[in-house]
Amino acid sequence: MVSEDELLRRWEKTVERLFREGVIKSEAVRRAFLKYPRYLFVQKRYWGYAHVDEPLPIPAGQTISAPHMVAIMLELAELKPGMKVLEVGTGSGWNAALIAELVKTDVYTVERIPELVEFARQNLRRAGVGNVHVFLGDGSGGFPPKAPYDRIIVTAGAPEIPEPLVEQLKPGGRLIIPVGSYHLWQDLYIVDKTEDGEIKKRRWGGVAFVPLVGEYGWRE
Ligand code: SAM
Q1: pLDDT 10s digits, 97-138
Q2: Which domains, and CATH codes, for the chain?
Q3: d(CA 196, ligand 1 centre) in Å
Q4: Distance from the CA of 20 to the center of ligand 1, in angstroms?
């Protein structure tokens, strides 16, 4: 078994490489990555692989995204302290922990699989993250009780952009969402709502996520 010192050393190398390559662009994202190493959010048998820049399995047949993918989405989200953020697809809780570190306030995240809600809560507790609120449910239609949001980050692939997510953005808000085919190939979209309520969509490029399953996602 690799020691935690060694896991941290490997993780720091991964973060520094992503920074050097320009994938991590901001000091804030770099610091958040260093504060919450990915191994804290995977099962122990995967700890030795947590620094590798690839997705890893988490329970219930789902995945924790590759570090570069998480960094890209966080940089596109341009998170600032005080922003109200909804994440759809809690998974391991890692991305939510990073978001919380960047906005320094409460973060809301929705997960449809009960086992993963428990898994994420445990990971977040162990990592000492206190301001992430994990809810069980179908987040494909957002999370109306806490709307509107400055940012909504969806970490599963939708067949199209769910209208309720756009509605739940504040003026000046931004939605980041993979949209495309059922499995493993989507385009990452950046959807901005201007201060006048106009909607502007941009395509960032190709990504590969597990499907968003639900009323505004794929049917089971
Ligand atoms: N953000 C996660 C992390 O940091 O570990 C990785 C998320 S994983 C790629 C996608 C997650 O979205 C899965 O856990 C899956 O169960 C969840 N999911 C899929 N459809 C969903 C829905 N309609 N509502 C909430 N969660 C959903």
Answers
A1: 999 999 999 999 999 999 999 999 999 999 999 999 999 999
A2: 4-208 (3.40.50.150)
A3: 31
A4: 29
